[in-house]
């Protein structure tokens, strides 16, 4: 009896082992099949994301290179009169050979010395700082918006016309998150925009309607590509300003430049250009760029915001109807 009990028990143990082994084998086979499938799915998703990011960056850069080649933002001698700002000392304006059909002039406006009503000694009450981003939307817009959101800061975006659907949500996000949507020409092609009053009108109207159809905003602030003091316009800038006035559009230049349009501008240079110059003005309109190849601007932005927020009686606000415009040319 005892012997048959032992046999029964060892038979049970044996069959348990077999079941266990069977489960092990099945589990291993299932894992061997599922793990590669999961890895494939994850990789496929990542590949897809990277591909669309790459395509967006590529399209962005192509748009940018088409218009600027290596450099951008023109600034002519007229910049000496910047709204209420009186600039003294010579402007360092350097002419760069035309790239494609665009004439570009590099300038170092941030290095200019200013005095008068904008002297820090004369500043009483709150200092208003307006962060403005030109040339977007781009593959940097999302990051810029995330940073602004993190610091609860509202800015102003002077955008161009980019009908590609990948930008649609960015225009909307700018508006939905409370930033000001300004205009910076549809094409950003100096040769077209500044060819005649008619071509300027056509470009401006196209952008205004495009932005209205995309966001529902009837934009009313403008930044001339290259600034109002650009020296490439074939048309008297007064005529263009008159046209803006007719459409109840206010144009804004800048009195603080981040210098991020300069090739190779580093994060620390950009931070320095902004942070060292903001204390000189009561109303600071800061020129920055929202572009695929301006990653240093994105890197510099948190430090810029933290530094400005750390200044006494200083606020960062978006451009509104109450903003005192800084204009390089005055009529
Ligand atoms: Zn621009």
Description of the molecule:
Helix 7 links the parallel strand 11 (256-257) and strand 12 (283-289). With 331 residues, the chain is an alpha/beta fold. The strands form 4 sheets. Strands 6, 7, 8, 11, 12 and 13 form a 6-stranded parallel sheet that branches. It has a 3-stranded antiparallel sheet with strand order 1-2-5, with no helix packed on it. It has a two-stranded antiparallel sheet with strand order 3-4. The protein is 45% helix and 16% strand. Mean pLDDT is 82; it is low at 70-119. It has helices at 2-68, 141-150, 165-176, 190-193, 197-215, 237-246, 267-277, 295-309, and strands spanning 81-82, 85-88, 93-99, 102-107, 113-115, 127-134, 156-159, 180-183, 221-222, 250-251, 256-257, 283-289, 314-316. Zinc ion (ZN) binds at residues 72-73, 134-135, 184, 188, 225.
Give the gist of this structure:
By secondary structure, this protein is of the alpha/beta class.
Question: What are the main properties of this structure?
Answer:
six-stranded parallel sheet, 13 strands, 331 residues, TIM Barrel, alpha/beta, binds zinc ion
């Amino acid at each position: 009896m005892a012997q048959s009990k032992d046999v029964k028990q060892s038979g049970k143990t044996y069959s348990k082992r077999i079941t266990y082994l069977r489960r092990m084998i099945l589990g291993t086979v299932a894992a061997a099949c599922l793990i590669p499938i999961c890895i494939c799915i994850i990789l496929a998703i990542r590949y897809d994301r990277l591909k669309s990011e790459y395509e967006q960056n590529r399209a962005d850069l192509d748009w940018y290179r088409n218009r600027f080649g290596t450099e951008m933002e023109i600034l002519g001698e007229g910049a000496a009169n910047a709204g209420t700002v009186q600039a003294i000392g010579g402007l360092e304006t350097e002419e760069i050979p035309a790239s494609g059909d665009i004439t570009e002039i590099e300038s170092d406006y941030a290095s200019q010395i200013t005095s008068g009503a904008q002297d820090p000694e004369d500043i009483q009450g709150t200092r208003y700082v307006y962060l403005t981003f030109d040339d977007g939307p781009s593959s940097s817009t999302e990051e810029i918006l995330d940073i602004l959101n993190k610091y609860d800061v509202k800015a102003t975006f002077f955008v161009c016309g980019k009908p590609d659907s990948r930008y649609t949500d960015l225009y909307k996000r700018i508006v939905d998150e409370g930033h000001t949507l300004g205009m910076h020409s549809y094409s950003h092609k100096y040769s077209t925009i500044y060819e005649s009053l008619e071509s300027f009108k056509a470009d401006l109207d196209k952008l205004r309607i495009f932005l209205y159809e995309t966001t529902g905003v009837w934009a009313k602030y403008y930044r001339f590509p290259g600034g109002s003091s650009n020296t490439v316009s074939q048309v008297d800038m007064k005529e263009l300003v008159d046209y803006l006035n007719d459409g109840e559009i206010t144009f804004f230049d800048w009195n603080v430049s981040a210098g991020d349009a300069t090739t190779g501008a580093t994060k620390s240079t950009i931070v320095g250009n902004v942070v060292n110059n903001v204390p000189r003005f009561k109303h600071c309109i800061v020129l920055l760029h929202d572009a695929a190849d301006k990653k240093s601007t994105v890197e510099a932005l948190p430090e810029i915001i933290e530094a400005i927020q750390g200044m006494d009686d200083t606020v960062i606000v978006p451009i509104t109807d109450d903003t005192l415009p800084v204009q390089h040319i005055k009529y």
